[in-house]
Design a protein that fits this description.
Strand 1 (137-138) and strand 2 form a beta hairpin. Among the domains are: 25-80; 95-127. It starts with 24 loop residues before the first helix and ends with a strand. The strands form 2 sheets. It has a two-stranded antiparallel ribbon with strand order 1-2. A two-stranded antiparallel ribbon has the order 3-4. With 181 residues, the chain is mostly helical. It has helices at residues 25-47, 53-77, 83-90, 99-122, and strands at residues 137-138, 144-145, 152-154, 177-179.
Length: 181
């Protein structure tokens, strides 16, 4: 082993070469184990003469379904993305300041910051700022009114049902109520 090689026998500047199952070997084997156990439970439920066969069939199907989680983890863990494709997404390279892309980015930043600043000036809540809406308001006379201090009038009307053959059906009278909100 040369000094440039690490404890695993790899050069310090090289990435490990993954063979066969890829990087997420544990997810692969968990997915296979879930599939095998689920299939065994399902087949026992189908072919065994037990009174709880339906429980075994459903449990086997659920375990097989849960193996999909491990298959997705294994697949997603083995997706390889070139660093050139990651430049804009994770900021690996400097963003270009020129050209149409840079002009569009500058325009977008300007528009979004002006909208954000105008919302702050008008007292509206800016998404992500933690400010709440619905503080003190001004009435028509210009006085400051605390929230929930006005009364709302609710009118209730009586509706007579149109029942065929029931002449003696009556609805009790209703009244108008006001609420403090």
């Amino acid at each position: 082993m040369t000094p440039a090689e690490g404890a695993h026998g790899l050069h310090a500047d090289m990435e490990p070469a993954y063979r066969g199952l890829g990087r997420c070997v544990y997810c692969f084997w968990l997915a296979v184990a879930f599939d095998v156990v689920g299939l065994l439970v399902l087949l026992i439920g189908v072919f065994a003469n037990v009174f709880f066969y339906d429980l075994l069939i459903y449990a086997g199907a659920i375990v097989i379904f849960l193996s999909l989680v491990w298959w997705v983890f294994w697949y997603a863990g083995n997706i390889e993305v070139l660093p050139s494709e990651l430049e804009d997404d994770v900021g690996l390279a400097k963003k270009d300041k020129g050209g149409i892309g840079g002009a569009v980015r500058r325009l977008s930043n300007r528009v979004s910051s002006s909208i954000r600043n105008s919302l702050r000036r008008n007292g509206a809540a800016v998404p992500g700022s933690g400010r709440r809406q619905g503080g003190a308001r001004r009435s028509a006379a210009g006085q400051t009114v605390a929230p929930h201090s006005e009364q709302v009038v609710v009118a209730m009307a009586t509706l007579t049902p149109n029942l065929v053959g029931c002449d003696d059906a009556e609805m009790p009278p209703t009244t108008t109520e006001t609420s403090p909100t």
